[in-house]
Amino acid sequence: MSEDQGRRTDRGFVVSVPIRWSDMDVFAHVNHARMVTLLEEARIPWLFVEGRPTRDMRAGCLLADLHVRYQGQIRHEDTPIDVTMFTTAVRAADFTVGYEVRPAAGPPDAKPSVVATTQLVSFDIDTQAPRRMTDAEKDYLREFLRPDARTPGLRAR
User: Fold this and answer.
1) Cα–Cα dist 119/149, whole Å
2) How far is CA 9 from CA 12, 58, 108, 143, in A?
3) Cross-strand partners of 14
4) If you write DSSP's letter for every residue of the chain in order, what string do you get?
5) How far apart are CA 49 and CA 4, in angstroms?
6) pTM of the prediction?
7) Which end of the chain is more exposed for a tag (fewer CB within 10 A), N or C?
8) How many Å apart are CA 152 and CA 143, to the nearest integer?
């Protein structure tokens, strides 16, 4: 897990995540399954730590949809990666997160090597049903809203 607590920028919330040797595949770039894990690790300091209005979602937040597009390679020497996260939609019980992944050494406006989206659903584990997000949760997520964001090759939901 990333020790970086992240930072707010004009493009979203950015977390630097280290690439581990075990994240690499036989072709010397980050394995797809491991990239999905790195995206998950980046979400933790943005959404689930103490002090965030969305911290209670750590008790129930499900991934409903995932899209990943590779526009360049990410290799071990690119560590850490900067993962910029933002929302493209916030609804009553779910929200869509956009991601842009770049090597940390590169400029923040460089073309991302990886773009992705995830639809996350606020979920009540006890009732096994989606739960409506609180106003504070929705307001926090809307602070990162980029409704005009067009993740290349992916549709914002």
Assistant:
1) 15
2) 5, 24, 10, 11
3) 7, 84
4) ------EEETTEEEEEEPPPGGGB-TTSSB-HHHHHHHHHHHHIIIIISTTSTTGGGGGSEEEEEEEEEESS---GGGPSEEEEEEEEEE-SSEEEEEEEEEETTS-TTSPPSEEEEEEEEEEETTTTEE-PPPHHHHHHHHTTB-TT---TT----
5) 12
6) 0.90
7) N
8) 22
The C-alpha angle 95, 79, 151, rounded to 5 degrees, equals 35
What tokens were used for 85? 């996260």
Residue 105 amino acid letter: A
The contacts of residue 9 (CB under 8 Å, 6+ apart) are: 84, 108
**Residue 133 is which amino acid?**
M
* Cα–Cα nearest to 152, from 35, 33, 70: 70
Tens digit of each residue's pLDDT, the chain (157 residues) = 556 789 999 999 999 999 999 998 888 889 999 999 999 999 999 999 999 999 999 999 999 999 999 999 898 888 999 999 999 999 999 999 999 999 987 888 899 999 999 999 999 999 999 999 999 999 999 999 997 776 544 554 4
